[in-house]
Design goal:
- Helices cover 31% and strands 20% of the residues.
- The chain contains 17 helices and 25 strands.
- It folds into five domains: 44 residues, no CATH class; 169 residues, no CATH class; 71 residues, Transcription Termination Factor Rho, Rna-binding Domain, Chain A, Domain 1; 129 residues, Poly(ADP-ribose) Polymerase, domain 1 (Up-down Bundle), CATH 1.20.142.10; 213 residues, Phosphoenolpyruvate Carboxykinase, domain 3, CATH 3.90.228.10.
- A hairpin with a 4-residue loop joins β8 and β9.
- It is of the alpha+beta class.
- The strands form seven sheets. Strands 1, 2, 5, 8, 9, 10, 11 and 12 form an eight-stranded mixed sheet that branches.
C-alpha cells in the first residue's frame, strides 16, 4: 500500500514511472495509487472519446458532480463563470484514513478544499465523507461515459479529464506542422487533425491566469483544428486549475474560416486582446494572459517527406564511452523537464521545447519589479499582485494549495525564482541546439555532441592531472558542507570553440586562477555550447550579491551546492575555469552595484572567513594558480563564510576541466 511508503520512497516510485515527484505525502500517495491502478487496468481499456449525443445539433456534457457532495465544494474552484468546475482528484484511499496522522489529514483536507478545524476524530470523519462523495460521483461519471455511444463525431463534446485512462495521454503529444496538438484530445482527433495555420498565424493559444489573493491558478487552451483532408473543422478548448487535466470542449464548425473566427472570438473573450494584435499584448486585470510559444523549429517539419524505408539499426557511436555517457546525461530533455518540475515550473502547460525568449525576459522583468518593491518595503498586497503577474507569465503547478502562501515576500524566495528563470533560459537555448538532424539518426549522441561545438576529452583517471584535480576536490570541501561527500567519476578536458581567441587579451594577466563553478544538470547544454553568461538587463540586480557577473569559488563544495542534487538525484557536474582576475576589488559585504568596477580593477572578490591555505597553492606551467590548499580559517570581517570571485566580462573566462561527480549524502549542512 502506497500510504506505508516513506516520502522519498514514494518519490522514487513516481520517478521510475516518469511522473511528477513534487508535493506533500498525501498528494504523492494519491498520484502513485492512480498510476498503479492505471497499470492494473491497462488491458481493460475504456472509451477515450467521452459521451456524445444522438442529436446532431446538440452538445453533450460529461461532467463529474463532485463539488455538490453534501452541498459543499470539495476543492477551490478555478474555472470560468461559464464553465463547470473540474472534479477534485482522489487523494487517498478510504481504508487508509484511519492510519493517517493529524498533519496528513489536514494536508489532504486542505488540498480538497475542506475545513481543517477540529480534533482528529472529526478530521477523519470529514475526510471519509469527502472521499465517499467523490467516489460516488466518479463512479456515476464513469458509468455515464462508458454507456454513451457516438454516432456523430462532429458535435461539440465537453468532458472532464480525471479518468485514469486519460492519465496515459499526458505523455503523448502529436505534432503536425508547427503546433503540438493538445495531449487531452481524443485519439481519433490526434490521428486525423492538425492545428490550423495561415501564413505566420498558428491558431494555438495557451492562456494563464494566477491571482494569489483570489486563490486562482488556472489555464485555458484554445486550438482551431482542421482535418488532414480539409473536410472537417473544430474549435477545441480546455480549462482548469494548473496541474489538473480539467475539462474540455470540442465544437464543430462549418468551415475553416469559421473555425478561425471562433478561435479569435474566444481569444478576445478570455483576454480582452485581439488576436491580430497579440504582438502588442497587454494583460487585463481579471482576464487571462497569453503565453507566447516558440514555433521556430516547425517549418521544415511539416514539409519533411515521409520516409517509408525501415529504419536501419543504430550502429556504435563515434564517441568515446566516457563522452557518450556525459552527452546522454546533459542532453536529456526529460531530465530538464523533471528538474524544472521539481522547483515548481509547469512543463505540461508551457512545454520546455516551446519556451520563447520573450516569455523568459518577461519573467525577469516581473522579478525586477518585485525586487524594487521589496527594497521599497511595499505592502503585501502589492507583492501579491506582482507575484500573481510572475506566476501568470511563468506557469507554476501549486496543486490545490492555497495560493496566498506563495507570495514572493523576501530576498531568498526572489533568488530561487531568479534561478528558475535562469534555468529556463538555458533550456530554451538547449531545445534549439538539440534539434535532431537527419544525418545523425544512426548516431544521435554524436549529433548532440557536434551541436555543442565544444571538445570534450576524457582525462585518464590514473594520470597526474586527475591526481591533483581530485586532491583539489578533497582539500577544499568545506566543513559546513558535511551533508555529502564528492566522488569524482570522470574528468574531461574542455575546449570551447573560439574561446581561446576571446581569452587572448587576458592571457597575460598575472592573476589568473583555476576556480570552481557549479550549476544544475539542465543548464549544461547551454553552458558548454554558449559559455558562461551574465544575466540580461531585465534581471534584478538584487538577485546577485556582487552584481550581475559570473561567480566562481575556491572551495569546491561552495560551487557544488549550486548543482542542486539530492539523495535520489545525486549526479552533478562541476567546472574548473581559468579566470583572469587581474587587480581585484575586495568586498566584505554584499554590493549589488559591484559590477561598476573602479578604474584598474578587473574583478570582485567577496572575502570569506575560510579559504584554501595560500602556502599550499599549485602553479601550473602556464602560470595559472590553483588554490588547492586545505581550508584555513582567517579573520572574518564580513558576512561570507567562503571566498567568491566575480568577473563581469565573459572573455576573462576559459573553461579547462569538467568533472562528473557523485554526491554521497549523509546529514544536513549549512551554506
Amino acid at each position: 500500500m502506497s500510504i506505508k511508503l516513506r516520502v522519498q520512497e514514494l518519490r522514487d516510485e513516481l520517478a521510475k514511472r516518469g511522473l511528477d515527484t513534487t508535493g506533500l505525502k498525501p498528494a504523492l500517495v494519491a498520484r502513485l495509487d492512480e498510476a498503479i491502478e492505471a497499470e492494473d487496468k491497462k488491458d481493460d481499456k475504456e472509451s477515450d472519446n467521452g459521451a456524445s449525443s444522438k442529436d446532431e445539433d446538440k452538445s453533450t456534457v460529461v461532467d463529474k458532480d463532485e463539488d455538490k457532495a453534501d452541498g459543499k465544494k470539495t476543492h477551490p474552484r478555478d474555472d470560468d463563470d461559464d464553465q463547470t468546475a473540474q472534479a477534485a482528484p482522489k487523494r487517498v484511499k478510504l481504508e487508509d484514513v484511519d492510519g493517517m496522522l493529524v498533519a496528513e489529514l489536514k494536508d489532504t483536507l486542505a488540498e480538497m478544499g475542506c475545513s481543517t478545524a477540529g480534533i482528529k476524530a472529526a478530521l477523519k470523519k470529514r475526510l471519509k465523507d469527502a472521499l465517499k462523495a467523490a467516489d460516488k460521483a466518479q463512479d456515476a461519471s464513469k458509468a455515464a461515459t462508458k454507456g454513451a455511444t457516438s454516432k456523430n463525431k462532429d458535435k461539440a463534446v465537453v468532458t472532464d479529464g480525471n479518468d485514469a485512462e486519460e492519465e496515459k495521454k499526458i505523455v503523448t503529444m502529436s505534432k503536425k506542422g508547427r503546433a503540438v496538438l493538445d495531449p487531452q484530445l481524443p485519439d481519433h482527433i490526434q490521428t486525423n487533425f492538425h492545428v490550423i495555420e495561415d501564413g505566420n498565424d498558428i491558431y494555438d493559444a495557451m492562456l494563464n491566469q494566477t491571482n494569489v489573493g483570489g486563490n486562482n491558478n488556472k489555464y485555458y487552451v484554445i486550438q482551431a483544428l482542421e482535418e488532414d483532408g480539409g473536410n472537417k473543422f473544430f474549435l477545441f478548448t480546455r480549462w482548469g486549475r494548473v496541474g489538473a487535466k480539467g475539462q474540455q470542449k470540442l465544437d464543430s464548425t462549418y468551415s475553416r474560416q469559421q473555425a478561425i473566427m471562433s478561435f479569435q472570438n474566444q481569444f478576445y473573450s478570455k483576454t480582452c486582446n485581439h488576436w491580430i494584435n497579440r504582438a502588442k499584448f497587454e494583460p487585463v486585470p481579471g482576464k487571462y494572459t497569453w503565453l507566447e510559444m516558440d514555433y521556430e523549429d516547425g517549418d521544415a517539419e511539416e514539409e519533411k517527406p515521409v520516409n517509408d524505408k525501415p529504419k536501419k539499426p543504430r550502429g556504435p557511436t563515434k564517441l568515446k564511452p566516457e563522452v557518450e555517457k556525459l552527452i546522454k546525461l546533459i542532453c536529456n530533455i526529460n531530465m530538464m523537464k523533471q528538474q524544472m518540475t521539481e522547483i515548481g515550473y509547469d512543463a505540461k502547460k508551457m512545454p520546455l521545447g516551446k519556451l520563447s525568449k520573450s516569455t523568459i525576459l518577461k519573467g525577469y522583468d516581473v522579478l525586477k519589479r518585485i525586487a524594487a518593491a521589496l527594497e521599497s518595503k511595499a505592502s503585501r498586497s502589492t507583492l501579491a499582485e506582482l507575484s500573481s503577474e510572475f506566476y501568470t507569465v511563468i506557469p507554476h503547478d501549486f496543486g490545490f494549495k492555497n495560493m496566498s502562501q506563495f507570495v514572493i515576500t523576501d530576498a531568498p524566495t526572489l533568488k530561487k525564482k531568479l534561478e528558475m528563470v535562469e534555468a529556463l533560459g538555458e533550456i530554451e537555448l538547449a531545445s534549439k541546439i538539440l534539434k535532431p538532424q537527419d544525418d545523425d539518426e544512426d548516431d544521435p549522441a554524436f549529433g548532440q555532441y557536434k551541436s555543442l561545438k565544444c571538445n570534450l576529452e576524457p582525462v585518464p583517471m590514473d594520470g597526474a592531472d586527475a591526481e591533483w584535480i581530485k586532491e583539489y576536490v578533497s582539500n577544499t570541501h568545506a566543513e559546513t558542507h558535511s551533508s555529502y561527500a564528492l566522488e569524482v567519476e570522470q574528468i574531461y578536458e574542455v575546449g570551447r570553440e573560439n574561446e581561446d581567441e576571446r581569452f587572448k587579451p587576458f592571457a597575460g594577466e598575472k592573476n589568473r586562477m583555476l576556480l570552481w563553478h557549479g550549476s544544475r544538470l539542465c543548464n549544461w547544454t547551454g553552458i558548454l555550447s554558449q559559455g558562461l553568461r551574465i544575466a540580461p538587463p531585465e534581471a534584478p540586480v538584487t538577485g546577485y550579491m556582487f552584481g550581475k557577473g559570473v561567480y566562481f569559488a575556491d572551495m569546491v563544495s561552495k560551487s557544488a551546492n549550486y548543482c542542486y542534487t539530492s539523495p535520489s538525484e545525486n549526479t552533478g557536474i562541476l567546472l574548473l575555469c581559468e579566470v583572469a582576475l587581474g587587480e581585484m576589488r575586495e568586498l566584505y559585504q554584499s554590493d549589488y552595484q559591484a559590477d561598476k568596477l573602479p578604474p584598474g580593477k578587473l574583478s570582485t572578490k567577496g572575502v570569506g572567513g575560510t579559504a584554501p591555505d595560500p602556502a599550499q597553492i599549485k602553479t601550473l606551467d602556464d602560470g595559472v594558480v590553483v588554490p588547492m590548499g586545505k581550508a584555513k580559517s582567517g579573520d572574518r570581517n564580513g558576512s561570507l563564510l567562503y571566498n567568491e570571485y566575480i568577473v563581469y566580462n565573459t572573455a576573462q573566462i576559459r573553461m579547462k576541466y569538467l568533472l562528473l561527480t557523485k554526491f554521497e549524502y549523509k546529514t544536513r549542512s549549512y551554506w
